[in-house]
Structures are given as C-alpha cells and as structure tokens.
Amino acid sequence: MNERLTVAADTIRTLAVDLPVNATFHIWLKATGHNSLGSVSFANARGKFAEVSIANAEEYGLRIYQVFGGGHVELSFDTATTAVSVIYWFTAADVLETGITVVHTNRGNAPPELPGGYHFRPPFGWMNDPNGFGRFDGRPHLFYQHYSHGLRWNTMHWGHAVSSDYLRWRHLPIFLFPSEDLTARPDKRGGAFSGTTIPLVDGPGIRVFFTEQVADRQPEQQIQLTATSSDLITAGQAEVVLASRPTGAGLTPDFRDPYVFRGPDGLWKMLLGSQSDEGGVILLYETEDRTAATGWTYVGKLLVEERYRTTAIECPCLLPLDGPATSRSTRWVLVYGLMNSKDEETGRQNLTMADVGWFDGRSFSKEFGQELDFGTDNYAFQAFLDGDRAVGIGWLANWADAHPDIDFPTAMTLPRAMHLSDGMLLTPPIGAAESLRSRILDRTRLAAGETVTFDNGAVEILFDLDEAGATFELELDHPGAAIAVFRDQRGLGIRYERDDGPASPLYVARGANPRRVRVFLDYGSIEVFADRGRWVGTKRIDGFEPIRAARFSAGAQSVVQATVWALKL
Ligand code: FRU
C-alpha cells in the first residue's frame, strides 16, 4: 500500500480515473477556510506528480491541469481543507467526438438521474437560456446560460454541447467564463449573459456575441462583447463591441442578448433587447465590417411593445421563413420574450411573441403575430437557419417559477422547426423527434376510453379528433399534480395544478380548434403540438416524478384514433 493511502484520514476523497494520453482536467475547487489552501493532488503508481490549489474560500475557482502520459491516475483532496464542485476531463484533439467525462459533482450541483429522459439538460449545475444555437463545422452546437456550482442562478458562464441530430448531445468543456473579478464571489452580479454565435467569415471557427453584465457598474451595467474560437471549444480574449446604449433613446440600463445575423442587404445585423418609457423595445444595429468584429452602429428601434406591461424585451431573434433573406417578398419571423409581462386574463407571465412580417434591413413591418407557446415554459427561444430550414429551441421554464431560494433544475424544450402555412406560423418538433419512438405501447385502448399505463415517463401520444375543435380531456396521472390536456369552449389548454402549490395560471390557446394533437411527456415536462405545430404549449412539471398513465376522461367518443409510443433517446 502506498503512503498516501495509509495516512488517509476519513476526510480524504480519492477519485480513480483511467486516462488516454493528453487529457485536460478542469477542476473547480475552493478552500474551506481562510487560513489554508484548498488543493487537489494527482498521483500514479510512482506517487504524487502534481497538485492544483487555491486560496479563495468564497467561490469555486477553475484550475486546469494537463496529464500527458495517460494511464491510471488518482486525484485526491482533503474535505477538511478543500471543497470541490466539479471535475471533468477531456482530450482536446477529439473532444467534439468524445465529449467531456465528468468524474466528480457534489450534492449541490449533481444532475438528476433520469433513465430514459430525452430533453437536453446540463451535466451539472444550473441552466437557463439557449445561446449561440447553430450549425458550425457541420454539427449543431448548443451553448447555454450556466452556473456550475449549484441549481440556482448565479454568475453566468456559457455551457456547451454538440450533436448530430439536435437530440443526442455530447457535453463539451465550459465555453465562456466571466471576468475573474465576477467569479471571486457567488453574489449574482452578472457574468457572460445571453447571445449568439456565427461562423467565422474566414473560418474555420466561430465568433460569439454576448452581453457582459456587471451589476452597478457605471455608466453601463450591460455591454456587448465578442470573442472568437478556432477550435470550437475554447474562446479567445473577449473584446467590447458596444460599450454603451444609444443615447437619447430613453432607454433603461437593460441592453442585452445580442442576436447577430445576415440582413437582406448582406450586412451583419444585431438585435438587442431593452426598455424605454414606451415599453419593451428591440434595438437594431448593423456593421459594414465583413468579419462582424467592429463598426457596429445604431440603426434604430425595430419594435416597441406595450402589451402586457412588459418591463424589457429579452432574447430577440429574427430569421427569414419562406424564401431567401435577400428577396423582398420573403417573410421573416421576429421572436422575443416579454420580461415581467402578465396576461391578466389567464395569469400567465413572461409571454413570448412571434411576429411574422417583412424585414428590409432597417425596419420590420408586421403582417400578423402569435404567441409562440401558450404554456409559456418555452422562454428565451433562439432560432437560426440551418441551410434553408429554421430550427429553434427554448428554455423549458419560466422566471415566474424560478424562485431564488429553491433548487430549480431545468431542461431545454424539444428542438422545433419553424415554417409558414396558410398564413400561420407552425413550430412542430423537428422531424428527427420521430427517431425517439422506440416501441408502440397502445393503438386501441386509449381511443376506447381505457387507461394506458407507461413504463417510464418518456412517452409520445398522438391522436386525431373526428372534427376540428371537438372537446376532450386527456387526463395524465402524476403523483404530485393534476395534469391534463384539454379542449373546451375556451380553447386548447394544459391543466397543471400542483397538489401543494398555489393556483396555476390558465394555460390556454384561446379559440384553438385542433384536429390532430401530439403530446410529448418526459420527467419534468409536457409539450403539446396541435395541428402540425399551429398551437404549441410547453409546461414544466415540478420535480422528476414521471407521468404514469393516460386516459380520456372526456371526449373519448370523438377520438378517431390514438397511438402511444414509449420514447428512448
Ligand atoms: C433571459 C435572461 C437574459 C439574460 C439571461 C441571464 O432569460 O434574463 O435576458 O441575458 O437571462 O442569465
């Protein structure tokens, strides 16, 4: 037995890992007290060969260590002096293929174990908005608002994952880090807020745009930064692209969430969310710099939104839908979140709007508008053009429920396609969602009014009604809440009443009269897509209890056919 193990007190934790050559470790640690260092040491058969340490006791700090040789390595730390939040390793040369390997999390940030769960979740810690969603170097990438060390919002980083089909993701190293000053204390002063990613014009590689928030910074709390990455896994030094808000526009300090895209005139454009005395506003910028790195100038307000008493617009995005960006007749969709908005009629908060119209590079003329999602748990939705197909994804949650004093694990929505049909915006799940269907559970009993029970909560239900707008109630059996999908005189809705919770808003698409309804269930969520995505409702379910069974408690006689699948990633 080697010496280290013989002296090991019961406060020593040891993690054994077998490594290929050239593994890079990311280790987040802090000191447990102010008088001694926190440290993690590395040992192999020949004994200890390295140590990383930190003096800060207030917040976990990142230490990076590269192990060149490979083989069996043991990492150890003394919990009397050292707290460790996360340890993962990866091999930089092929991490896009292999992902990171997480070897340590703790009770405060561990991900839930959800066998069969098929929604994207972070490998540890907190997640909110999707960021920088796009296809780069051939593969879909998803970045997201992230805090590694707990399940509550705090100093923002960008997490990162890569996929080949938008459904099966590999976790990658954390991509964007806030300034060192912000990471010294977990005091929620800001960080790397939401933004977008574009391919580098002189590629390969990417350029990201994001808001840097530093609470109480004068004169601006929120400024816009850019950084590039040639390997798609590490961001270079960030530079300021917009150091202040436009003057004279009557704006509050809200100035965030840059969305960068190519305009109809070939110039790079940027949208930002803000607020003025008129209501929520979307600001438009553009640059003649072909690299998009510099030269950003203010064009004007693209949209002013007074409805629902919003206090700021967040995460705007704009993309062409039914033709090339360069054609004058092409319709564009403008999606934006209404922070702090409230629909008094239903009690729903933080609504997301989708306006369809024409964008000439400088102004947007609206043809019609819809709510993006009547369930409102599809926030900070971000979409981009993948070739000629629009694909988007949202945060499967709502700030109205994310109380700062409760752990609040979240997922992303199913990725959605976006297209126009008969003067309406459709946002169905992407086609690849059908690849989740692993086994048919039922084709007869549900339609006959019987109860169909599930193996785990990962289920898709598809049913047709005998006429558009027939009334029904599909009851979903859950141990902690009354949950149902219904159509009644009000429209299509999701009932979600927690047994121990306050009264819920009315999640309803008024006047919706669907004929075909597709329902996706997973641990912690329900998503309803009616008539190919014409009406979509996404609702987060508290906790991880699966839905156990379904039954038409009303309207089974109107159900022409129903199919239930067990889903599997
Ligand atoms: C939206 C949002 C963004 C901001 C980010 C911070 O959910 O409030 O406006 O950039 O979250 O995490």
What does this structure look like?
With 569 residues, this protein is an all-beta fold. It folds into three domains: 3-90, Galactose-binding domain-like (Jelly Rolls); 125-426, 5 Propeller (Tachylectin-2, Chain A); 432-567, Jelly Rolls, CATH 2.60.120.560. The protein is 2% helix and 53% strand. The strands form ten sheets. It has a six-stranded antiparallel sheet, with no helix packed on it. Strands 32-41-34-35-36-37 form a six-stranded antiparallel sheet, with no helix packed on it. Strand 35 (481-488) and strand 36 form a beta hairpin. The protein is globular, with a radius of gyration of 25 Å. The protein starts with a helix and ends with a strand. The model is unreliable at 1-6 (pLDDT under 50).
Topology summary:
Layout: H1 3-6, E1 12-19, E2 23-31, E3 38-44, E4 47-54, E5 61-67, E6 71-78, E7 82-90, H2 95-98, E8 101-104, E9 126-136, E10 139-147, E11 157-163, E12 169-176, H3 180-183, E13 190-199, E14 206-214, E15 222-229, E16 239-242, E17 251-262, E18 268-276, E19 279-287, E20 297-305, E21 312-320, E22 332-339, E23 342-343, E24 348-349, E25 352-359, E26 364-371, E27 379-386, E28 389-395, E29 416-421, E30 424-426, E31 437-442, E32 452-453, E33 459-465, E34 472-477, E35 481-488, E36 491-498, E37 507-510, E38 516-522, E39 525-530, E40 535-540, E41 549-554, E42 559-567
Antiparallel strand pairs: 1-6, 2-5, 2-7, 3-4, 3-6, 7-8, 9-10, 10-11, 11-12, 13-14, 14-15, 15-16, 17-18, 18-19, 19-20, 21-22, 22-25, 23-24, 25-26, 27-28, 28-29, 29-30, 31-42, 32-41, 33-38, 33-42, 34-35, 34-41, 35-36, 36-37, 38-39, 39-40
The structure holds beta-D-fructofuranose.
The site of beta-D-fructofuranose has 13 residues, from strand 9, strand 13, strand 17, strand 21 and strand 27.
